[in-house]
Amino acid sequence: MANTLYVVGIGPGNPDYVVPHGLKLIEEAKVLVGSERSLLDFAHEGQLTHSVTGKLTELALWIEEQLKSHDVVVMVSGDTGYYSLLPYLKKKFPDTPIDVVPGISSMTFAFARIGEVWQDADLLSFHGRVPKEESLRYEAGRKLGFLTDKEHNPAAIAQILMEHGWPADTKSVALERLSYEDERIEHGTLTDITRLSSFEHSVFIVLG
User: Fold this and answer.
1) Which of 28, 91, 142, 183 places its Cα 20 to 30 Å from the Cα of 198?
2) Under CATH, what is the fold of the domain 106-207?
């Protein structure tokens, strides 16, 4: 029987927010893959580990080798179905059994943190990509949720939105390090957010 590739969503990162089945798979894994931060949080002595970096081809070859003798558990931040490594793994391992365990996405966690529903929000990403121009249009009452990165942080996105017609006094919230002790949440107008520094891989919510 072929070994299984498990893809486990670890939510915002704090082990308290990982679903029990996913946590059990991580704890019992002989081979564990994840970001350097997640490996520090979850890996234990005796596990064979490999960190996820920008060298995905190298990672895929390593996973392929390990699958010859063991199941492999791959931890992905947030939820498995929301801008995760899952599409890449499905493409690289089309004939391997893949078992997916969902997690809490950083977006849903962020909306929960500020007590807002996200069912009526448009979810976009500036994390390693740029949304289409038309998706940034202003509309009164429109709610947006963004994943961000180092270049397109909340300050940069706030400026971009104002250049696309969003009023400078639009309410917004920048959130980073969600679920950790040093979690940071900043409320303000778009103008206020343009003055924020150091926010990088975070979530930015706009409450139009």
Assistant:
1) 142
2) 3.30.950
pLDDT tens for residues 24-57?
999 999 999 999 989 999 999 999 999 998 889 9
With cut-offs at 50, 70 and 90, classify the pLDDT of residue 203. very high
Encode pLDDT of 155-200 as tens digits. Answer: 999 999 999 999 999 999 999 999 988 999 999 999 999 999 888 7
Q: What count of other Cβ atoms lies within 10 Å of the Cβ of residue 13?
A: 23
Buried-exposed string 56-93: b where 16+ CB fall within 10 A, e elsewhere: eeebeebbeebbeeebbbbbbbbbbebbbbbeebeebb
Structure tokens at 98: 């893949």
**Listed residue (118, 145, 208) closest to 171, CA to CA:** 208
Of the CATH numbers 3.40.50.1820, 3.40.1010.10, 3.40.50.620, 3.90.226.10, which one belongs to the domain with range 5-101? 3.40.1010.10
Measured CA to CA, the distance from residue 122 to residue 125 in angstroms comes to 10
In contact, 32 and 43? CB cutoff 8 Å: yes
